[in-house]
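User: Just a sanity check before I run the rest of the batch. Below are the structure tokens for the first item. I only need the designed sequence back.
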């Protein structure tokens, strides 16, 4: 059994009328070329293994031709930032028309810090709208992720330090000809990260619509990854709407090596944990929660769970057996469920039982193919190396 840490939220608010996010981001995404809802996959074999009634995997491995859900937040935030700077909402039917409408703002650069997926999504939007992109990554970022960002036409700069150091560096780029598109917030910088959270709400609406189409009951337990907390805030806001007569319980998952949100819950206040943050769940390697995500997730998530890398690796392999090719961060939600299976006392306390209907979100595909191959070749009897995927057992 591998190490986990857990914090039960004794003061959770299961209904939060002020956290409602409407369907405007979904309507925007539906106008983008190539939009289609991502699959909601029923995985009965995994449900049986976990001892639950249903397991749905919302597969975000290909979203608007990108290998993760991040384009949802980046595209909506870029759009909102551009129309704010324009001072008007232009009429447009295509991205070409939108690019023409924002042309008076040129030359314009979009800047961001990233562990991979968010920066690539910002770079894609910059290319589509005729902007430049400058993306900052922490040292140790997988070369495959850097190459993918560069392939979008972006300039990539490696920052000596953690993701949080890259955030600080990216913030210095803000100016008349540069918009910083961050998925986390700090004092004085809140509007754009709030739009990122709004953009992620499309995931929840798509799940609702698909289950309604199938005439199936909604999940009674939702598992979501936590990095700075933006996705977790979007999912929490969605499932804490008054529309849910019986709101689902929510579990937030992060790495034990970067458990800044769990540490903040334990301290009762926003807490920064020092690096290095070297989990293989690269998209969750964050040392400080987002200021605007924190009030939502601290009030709305039932269980905060930090898991070792081995659980994410096992999640990658279990998803592969189900035909879902996931990266390490993408499999972290399932990794959290696997950790609960190994810790029945915690599972019982959160209400995970044989009748449970559980939703997990596979947030990314195999964005580091070498790491993915190593994970599939391993059985995790050996420890994961710091910052690397599990290596094959001799």
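Assistant: Here's the designed sequence for the first item:
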């Amino acid at each position: 059994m591998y190490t986990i840490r857990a914090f039960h939220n004794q003061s959770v608010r299961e209904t939060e009328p002020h956290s409602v996010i409407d369907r405007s981001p979904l309507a925007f995404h539906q106008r983008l070329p190539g939009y289609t809802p991502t699959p909601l996959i029923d995985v009965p074999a995994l449900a049986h293994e976990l001892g639950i009634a249903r397991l749905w995997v919302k597969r975000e491995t290909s979203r608007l031709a990108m290998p993760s859900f991040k384009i949802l937040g980046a595209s909506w935030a870029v759009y909102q930032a551009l129309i704010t700077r324009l001072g008007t909402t232009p009429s447009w039917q295509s991205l070409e028309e939108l690019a023409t409408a924002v042309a008076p703002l040129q030359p314009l650069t979009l800047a961001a810090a990233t562990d991979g997926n968010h920066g690539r999504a910002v770079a894609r939007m910059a290319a589509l709208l005729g902007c430049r992109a400058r993306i900052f990554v922490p040292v140790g970022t997988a070369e495959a992720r850097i190459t993918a960002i560069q392939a979008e036409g972006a300039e990539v700069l490696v920052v000596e330090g953690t993701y949080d150091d890259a955030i600080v560096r990216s913030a210095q780029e803000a100016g008349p000809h540069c918009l910083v598109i961050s998925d986390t917030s700090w004092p004085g910088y809140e509007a754009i990260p709030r739009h990122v959270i709004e953009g992620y709400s499309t995931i929840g609406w798509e799940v609702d619509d698909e289950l309604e189409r199938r005439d199936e009951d909604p999940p009674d337990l939702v598992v979501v990854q936590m990095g700075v907390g933006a996705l977790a805030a979007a999912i929490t806001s969605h499932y804490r709407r008054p529309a849910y007569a019986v709101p689902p319980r929510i579990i937030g998952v992060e790495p034990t090596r970067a458990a800044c949100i769990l540490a903040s819950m334990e301290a009762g206040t926003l807490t920064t944990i020092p690096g290095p943050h070297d989990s293989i769940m690269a998209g969750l390697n964050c040392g400080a929660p987002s200021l605007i995500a924190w009030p939502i997730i601290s009030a709305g998530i039932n269980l905060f769970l930090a898991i070792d890398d081995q659980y994410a690796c096992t999640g990658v392999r279990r998803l592969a057996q189900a035909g879902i090719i996931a990266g390490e961060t993408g499999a972290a939600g399932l990794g959290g469920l696997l950790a609960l299976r190994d810790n029945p006392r915690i599972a019982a306390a959160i209400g995970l039982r044989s009748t449970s209907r559980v939703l997990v979100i596979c947030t990314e595909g195999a964005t580091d193919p070498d790491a993915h191959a190593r994970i599939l070749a391993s059985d995790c009897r050996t420890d994961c190396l710091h910052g690397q995927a599990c290596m094959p057992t001799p």
